Amino acid sequence: MTLLVKNGNIQIDKYKGGKRMQKMIKACNFYVSEWHLFAALLPYIRDELKVKNKIMVISQDSLEKGMKHLVKKLNLKFENEKGLDDIKWLSEEFVIEMCEETKPVTIIVQGTIEFINEINTYIQQKISPLYSNLKIINCYEVYNTNNMLYNILDEHDFVFNTAGMNEKSEIFPGYIDKKKALL
User: Fold this and answer.
1) What is the rounded average pLDDT for all residues in the chain?
2) What is the pTM (predicted TM-score) of this model?
3) Exposed (0-12), middle (13-18) or buried (19+): which is 20, by Cβ within 10 Å?
4) What confidence category does residue 40 fall into, taking pLDDT thresholds of 50, 70 and 90?
5) Angle between helical axes of 34-50 and 64-74 (0-180°, round to 10)
6) Which of 21, 25, 110, 113 has its CA 20 to 30 A from that of 153?
7) What is the CA 89 to chain-centroid distance, rounded?
8) pLDDT band at 129, cuts 50/70/90?
9) Model pLDDT, residue 183
10) C-beta of residue 2 within 8 angstroms of C-beta of residue 16
11) Which of 21-25, 56-60, 68-72, 158-162 is predicted with the least confidence, judged by mean pLDDT?
12) 133-141 and 22-31 beta bridge pairing
């Protein structure tokens, strides 16, 4: 496996010899309530669905009902035909029918640190080889991460918030990105 860094994006070449290049980006999000999480995710989800990119949400707390309720309350309109119904909503126990995908795919994972780590291991071992362009957004409730914050940041490429994807040091001044320091 080869790790390439171009313009701040990390690309992982899973196949040597010039075959398919896989681009995988991991971002972390820290939220204080489900409504705060929805405020960060909805604009991103809306933009991704608009250009027909695929989205999967794997949540420990079953976010689908709350997010759809908020969209209804705010009377938000989506440019894709089905709106949030185009998202594949998954909970703790799930089965995914998978096939190779060349369109960008975002997998949003929400739950405890242990749940997110378990799902990420599964994604990296079973799901990521099928996708040529994969973004993983891991969503952590801030109250459960205070003593693990720097460890979580070290495992991700970006921080995702209401402004979108951001360099970690822009959101957490003083944070030294170990991946970039080694280059």
Assistant:
1) 79
2) 0.78
3) exposed
4) very high
5) 80
6) 21
7) 14
8) confident
9) 62
10) yes
11) 21-25
12) parallel
Distance CA 156, CA 179 (A): 10
Catalogue the long-range contacts made by 111-114 (C-beta closer than 8 Å, 24 or more residues apart): 111/59, 111/60, 111/61, 111/139, 112/60, 112/144, 113/140, 113/144, 113/145, 113/148, 113/152
* Alpha carbons 133 and 170: distance in angstroms, whole number: 25
Q: Residue 130 and residue 24: Cα distance in Å, rounded?
A: 11
Question: How many residues would you count in the chain?
Answer: 183
Q: How far is CA 84 from CA 20, 177, 182, in A?
A: 30, 35, 40
Which of 8-22, 28-42, 146-160 is predicted least confidently? Answer: 8-22
